[in-house]
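User: Hi! I'm a student and our assignment asks us to look at how structure tokens line up with a sequence. Could you show me two examples?

Assistant: Happy to help. In each example below, the sequence comes first and the structure tokens follow. Example one:
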Amino acid sequence: MALQNIGASNRNDAFYRYKMPKMVTKTEGKGNGIKTNIINNVEIAKALARPASYTTKYFGCELGAQSKFDEKTGTSLVNGAHNTSKLAGLLENFIKKYVQCYGCGNPETEIIITKAQMVNLKCAACGFISEVDMRDKLTNFILKNPPEPKKGSKDKKAMRRAEKERLKEGEVADEEQKKLKKETKKKASSKTSKNHSSDEDISPKHVEDAQEEDDDEDDDDGVQWQTDTSREAAEKRMKEQLSAVTAEMVMLSAMEAEEKKPPKSKANGDVKTETPQVEKKSLVQEIKEYLKKGSPISELKTFISSLSDPPQEVMDALFNALFDGVGKGFAKEVTKKKSYLAAAATTQEDGSQMHLLNSIGSFCGKSGNEEALKEVALVLKALYDQDIIEEEFVLEWYQKGLTGVDKSSPVWKNVKPFVEWLQSAESESESEEED
């Protein structure tokens, strides 16, 4: 069966991995009963991850003709004689409206119906939520015939509930165990006090057991922390504190005296004047001035390498110089200035790709950058499509972020859909190679 790329914009991409069968149609009947049968509509709909009834209904709505899809036989019929090219053009419009992500153009989307009865598309690659135009006729049909939920979603919810219940039961059990320990300790102490009052013989084993229980409750690994309260020790501590304070006061007074000293005179009587220190430019300002010069982008890597600051700080400064103040539309700005980022992160060996990913994370993680944070997955998708960042570095950066100091950053939550898409794409390609 002949295949073609999904989406007209990807028609000439030889390496595009999302494909669907080419449409095959057949005209049936004569006169008023003439109909067009879309023979492989089920296979096309399966490749688009949409019900075949949606595409059939869409053709009917756009052509102003009656349409019918038979669930049992898989037959898609549209009244009237319609050529294949016309129906293929309508299918491309359907893909744009109801399949491709409005943010990154990826066809891996899922139809979601909100509580307000709105039809949205959720992208598995970048996490973007696309709002479908509710004025379109097909939306009413989708609301009446919602797509079936993905398999495993109910099982996942049940597993989460069971996990929460297990955690609650564990907490209750821990509380009961603590209460039992306290009660046994009280009973042991009351028994020892009674035995002492009645002058009864106490077995050494019983005393040792009680002491062991007390030691276990303390849980200090046998270390006893004590403070020497003798007079000599107290005097020693006071002397140490006083000496430290005195030394600090002497240093402060010496510094003040140094500041108050008049400038030294030279032998000829001229007063030496101190030259004022020139304030050093910030790294971001220095890079901004270089970019304003309009130097060729090919020379950017050489300029960056000439800077003495650490590579990560240089990449952070470059990113801030390029996108300072950018919020909404962050992904579009990154796409416009991708050539600068490509020049800065040219090779795998120098770690520049990881530095670039760190800069993206720190830029989006800043307070006040909520709009940019929403588009972080779109940014990664755009850079990945342009081969500026590679899959292995993205996955490594994401794993380090989840276990690092900033693991609570909201960046990782927004990046997660793109990472999951990368991992699923990798597993699919491996299975195709095995086949």
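Example two works the same way, sequence first and then tokens:
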Amino acid sequence: MASIVLIGAAATGIAQASVAMFRARGDDVLVVDADPALGLADGAGRCHILARDFDDPAMPREAIALAADLHGGIDSLIVAAGAMHAATLADWTQTAWDAVHAVNLRLPFFVAQAAAPYLAASANPAIVFVSSTAARRGQPQTAPYQASKAGLSALVRGLAAELGPAGIRVNAVLPGWIETPFSNAFWQTKADPAAARGAVERRIPLRRQGKAGEVAAVIGFLASPAACYVTGTEIVVDGGDSAV
């Protein structure tokens, strides 16, 4: 039975689907979420919840220590927290930039730093970051968000090189347009949300947005022994959108 630390808004979206997937296969999960009132489905694996803000500097070490104490160690670290902000170039502020990077780039690094000693003792140690195809393509009004995700790609490669000798795998999943409250909030920044969404869906080869469970399945693979020789890479889950 694996012990998983999942950091993300687990009441919704990809993080929620990941918690359900891990627990269904019998894994124990510690969920870190800024919202203490989570409605998580039952599962075979145990689930504990730590209510903490993602930008709390003390959170990474506290969460990792609690997971190790509750579950006797850590096998996988999943960081699915994300911060999105959209504004014209002229309207971006340093505060907004810092808030996006604190969650999307600083948090993954320091949680990985705290988890590494525990992961090194596992027979199947894995770190999986949930990034975005925004790391590879441009889009108006979200350049700082894209920059944070591009930085996460470099972080994956650097950590894979450093932690590989300890047997720790480090990978990322790059979702495209996924049906979640996170992406739905983006559509609402558009003058005509339905038209903007329709235009994107028409260009995706599979002609639809993805489902959170479809991303969770890839996360589950990367955290499993089946991915024992996969590290330093990114798997795109976007229905072919970035391939055409």
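Here is something you could point out in your write-up. The chain has a mean pLDDT of 93.
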